[in-house]
Amino acid sequence: MLIEARNISLDVPDMGHQVLIGKRRTLRILKNVSIAIARGETVGIVGESGSGKTSLGRTLLRLYQPSEGQLLFDGADITNLDQRAMKPLRRRMQMIFQDPQSSLNPRRTIGSILAGAMALHGDETNETILAALLDRVGLPASALRRYPHQLSGGQRQRVGIARAISLKPEFVVADEIVSGLDVSTQAQVLDLLKGLRQEFGLALAFISHDLSVIRHICDRIVIMRGGEIVEAGGTAETFRAPKTEFARMLIAAIPLPAPDPHWLDE
Amino acid sequence: MNPVIDIRHLSAQSAAALILRDVSLSVNAGEAMALVGESGAGKSTIAKAVLGILPAGIKVTSGEILFEGTDLLQLPPARMRDLLGVRIALIPQDPQTSLNPSRRIGDQLTDGLRLRAGLSRIAATAKALQLLNDVHIREPERVLKRYPHELSGGMRQRVLIAQAFSLSPHVIIADEPTTALDVTVQKQVLRLIRQLQREHGTTLLFVTHDLGVVAQICDRMTVLYGGKVLEQGATAGILKNPSHRYTQALLAANPRYDQPEQSLKPVPEEVIADLKREKSA
Question: SS3 of B139, please?
């Protein structure tokens, strides 16, 4: 397994709780979660809002430090590494964000955004390298001199993907990367992601609220609720025969584009 | 049957581009009509034109919007205001920003009842309680005293639905009312809209990008691209046998968990290229 979480929990300060004296109470937003992803494997993390799926993704990248449990990357324990010790690992694990509108600096050109990520890790960048990178995600070299607002949503998400793969990572967390896109664009971006996954042999954590998309792209899925994993299994099996009532209900709540007079009443 | 909403040859443009091109569609009494399309299709613009709330930069260049026989585009603003909320109401997309954050739910729900229906404060509060009951909100007495931020997204959307139905409008325009909600909550909200619509015999104009939602709650649908109507008809018929290539491509692009092999196909580039050529012609 490339990345593995063993019984991790995550506590955050409870901002809804007033403190006069002493320590602020904490909220446990991940509870005893275990998940492992091998190279070349895609695991879907599904759940409704507030279920902890994004927090889990960020914890897997060690952007958050688990309060309990153990986090392993390529066999090494990274649970308590400091920033400096994490740095060489950072390039091997990357994130693609939900909203390319707000995750790309509006005042920098696409070329400068992409070069920035690579320069940070001491990689050589020049026009040819950056153009090749853009070409890999299906964008023309002319996009290098554009600003994010001059691109469409789908094109911006391609830039987000280009930035993530620019360092040739081994593990990528994709957090709701198609939820803001039109269906036609969504299909193209997912096609691109599938190609890159194969090319790089990525371990991919694919976070989404959309079970239909998950069904298409993931080998296995974990279903989260209230900070816990309530069901885990192979994607096809889970859809065919969900083990929990919660999973069954989630699947049944997806409207299919074929009229079913009984769907609303179920 | 006389249509309740009859849009005839509606065109609109902004400084930069044509936004609507010769859009015609009619909705009969008690019917649910979907306006479907991707971003930029013009579906929200049509909804805003009916409500008379087009953004300042967009002007209607020709056509008419008949509501029960009256052209809304010719109505003086004061007459239009009399209709809004009373005869034509809106369920907005975003329950987060559509309620006033600094006023209690009860005050916001009773505004229309007192100012438009002329109810007394006591009668309006009683009606508001009944409305919250109708949208299946538990402990409505307590919810009336709450501020919007104290409610979940699904609860807020129910409040907005209660508000839309409060003055028994003839037409309700729902603009992507469930896009911001989780699927399980979406299903409850859709069920609620459909149930109230049937009980009141309300005519529904439902704006959405989600073909699954259309299939489950709309009788007829209009498919739009680039401000143009591509296809129109009974939902079941179009979804089963789409005649336009774009509609076919859109259906094939839609991910379906029950058909993992046949769905989520990118829209062929030539389909989009053809539409764009048509658009610039």
Answer: coil
